[in-house]
Amino acid sequence: MKIPDRRIELFTASGTASASGTGTGTRTTPGTDSASRFSSPATGDEKTMLVAILAAQRATLQLKCSGLEAELAVRSVPPSSLSLLGLVRHLADVERRWFRAVLAGHDVELRFSSAEAPEGDFDGSAPDPETVAESWAAWDAEVAFAESFAAEAPHLDVEGHDAWRGAVSLRWVLIHMIEEYARHNGHADLIRERIDGAVGL
User: Which of 56, 103, 127, 169 qualifies as a cystine partner to 73, CB 3.0-4.6 A?
Assistant: First the structure.
C-alpha cells in the first residue's frame, strides 16, 4: 500500500525540532522528531508498549510548542480559551492527578486548577516568561514522577482510588493518559497552525 506523504515537518533545516525559546521544557524527552517518536515497539509486553506510546504523545506536545515563548499563551481559536501554554498546564495537572494523587496516594492539590478556579490551568496562561517557565517546570516535574512511578511499578494491575472512577489500575491510567494527550495534541495542531502556519505530525 502506498501512503501519500502529506506531511510538512515542524523541524529546522537540520532535521531536528527547533530548540529556541522556552517552549520545549527542560526535560530531555527522547524522540522529538517523527522518526524516533514513532519508532516505539509494535510488539512485546503490554507495559512497554503503553509507556512508549504515552512517551511519544508527550514528545508530540513538546514538538507542537517548540520555538515559541510568549506565543504559547496565544488563544488563537476564539471563543475558546485554549492555548498551547494552557494545554501544558492542563496536562501537568492531569499527570499530577492520576499518577501522584490517585496511584501513589499522595495528599496533594492540583498545581493550576482548584474548586475556586476550575479553569485556572487555561485562564492563568500568560505570555510573561515567569508563567511560561513555571508551567514547563510543573509539567517536567509531573511527567518525571509519572515515568518513575510506571517504571518502578511491578505490574499494570497496581491500583489507586479516584473519587470519580473508584478503583483504577495503572493499565487504565496509561490508556487514559494516551487518550488525553491524543485529544489535546489534536487541539495543539490547530492552535499552532493558527499561530505561525506550522503543521506536521
Answer: 127
